[in-house]
């Protein structure tokens, strides 16, 4: 079997239900073609390097699965139809996976690691946001611009 | 003051000399087997792009042919997914 890596970007305003529906559709295609689902990684909402359909951010997902290759055409067709998909990319990760079961177990481990990393990232982000909020509370007024208040805050500290 | 003026020409000459014997560059991916080329890793890919986000040629980066080839496809994939820009923002 071949291992495929499929990355797709959903528009940032999509509801969690809508996202779940898209995931489910992909999984369905894999299952229909008797492929094996390996893992799904949520990269989170990331800033796009350039604007796509007027969106500045996108919700990135990566899914790995084992299959014959027939799945890809169908998944890509679905992605093209879906208006909430900003970008997708399918890559052949491994041309010949001989030991399917080992790979499935391995992928489960990988998925667990990714989930842990994701949780850490999330915690870090929450902490940072908390700090930023506190700083904002510390200096009242002037939160219209992103950068200027920050510089002003530094100046005040020095004095 | 006098010192600065005296030093200048010497510096210039040295720099011109260095240009003549360009240091042999080693492919970064051959030297360090740990780092693999991955289109998902935007940070690493960024190293091989200029400020205007053009791909840095082998002649400058010193990559070997095989790795430059892999890097190019990785960059192009990353660009498609908007992980890395095609060019700097305009307008």
Can you walk me through this structure?
The complex is a heterodimer of chains A (159) and B (91). Chain A has 159 residues and is α+β, with helices and mostly antiparallel strands. Chain A contains 4 helices and 4 strands. A 4-stranded antiparallel beta sheet of chain A has the order 2-3-1-4. In chain A, strand 2 (36-52) and strand 3 form a beta hairpin. Chain B is globular and about 40 Å long. The interface between A and B is medium-sized, with 14 and 13 residues.
In terms of topology, how is this protein built?
The complex is a heterodimer of chains A (159) and B (91).
Chain A: E1 2-10, H1 16-32, E2 36-52, E3 55-67, H2 70-81, E4 85-94, H3 100-138, H4 148-158
Antiparallel strand pairs in A: 1-3, 1-4, 2-3
Chain B: H1 2-20, H2 28-31, H3 42-47, H4 58-61, H5 65-80
Q: Uncertain runs of chain A with pLDDT below 50, 5 residues or more?
A: 145-159
Mean pLDDT over all positions of chain A: 83
**Integer-rounded radius of gyration of chain A:** 21 Å
Provide the β-strand percentage band of chain B. Answer: under 5%
Placed side by side, the strands forming the largest sheet of chain A appear as 2-3-1-4
Q: Summarize the amount of helix of chain A as a percent range.
A: 40-55%
Share of residues in strands of chain A: 25-35%
Largest sheet of chain B: none
Number of strands of chain A: 4
> Which class do the helix and strand fractions of chain B yield?
mainly alpha
| Whole-angstrom Rg of chain B | 18 Å
Total of helices of chain B: 5
Mean pLDDT of chain B: 79
How far apart are the termini of chain B? 46 Å
Number of helices of chain A: 4
What multimeric state do the chains show?
heterodimer
Choose one word for the global shape of chain A: globular
Helix residue percentage of chain B: 40-55%
Low-confidence stretches of chain B: 1-12
| Element order of chain A: H for helix, E for strand | EHEEHEHH
């Amino acid at each position: 079997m071949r291992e495929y890596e499929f990355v797709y970007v959903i528009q940032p305003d999509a509801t969690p239900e809508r996202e779940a529906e898209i995931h489910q559709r992909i999984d369905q295609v894999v299952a229909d073609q008797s492929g094996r689902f390996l893992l799904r990684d949520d990269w989170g909402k990331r800033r796009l390097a350039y604007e796509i359909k007027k969106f500045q951010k996108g919700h990135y997902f990566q899914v790995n699965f084992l299959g014959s290759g027939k799945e890809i055409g169908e998944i890509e067709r679905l992605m093209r139809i879906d208006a909430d998909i900003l970008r997708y990319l399918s890559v052949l990760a491994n041309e010949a996976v001989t030991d399917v079961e080992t790979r499935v177990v391995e992928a489960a481990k990988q998925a667990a690691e990714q989930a842990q990393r994701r949780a850490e990232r999330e915690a870090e982000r929450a902490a940072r946001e908390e700090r930023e909020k506190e700083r904002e509370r510390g200096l009242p007024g002037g939160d219209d611009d992103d950068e200027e208040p920050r510089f002003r805050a530094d100046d005040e500290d020095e004095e | 003051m006098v010192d600065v003026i005296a030093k200048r020409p010497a510096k210039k000459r040295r720099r011109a000399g260095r240009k003549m014997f360009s240091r042999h560059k080693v492919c970064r991916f051959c030297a360090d087997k740990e780092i693999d080329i991955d289109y998902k890793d935007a940070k690493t890919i960024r190293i091989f792009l200029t400020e205007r986000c053009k791909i840095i040629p082998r002649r400058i980066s010193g990559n070997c042919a095989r790795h430059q080839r892999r890097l190019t496809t990785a960059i192009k994939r990353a660009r498609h997914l908007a992980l890395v820009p095609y060019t700097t923002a305009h307008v």
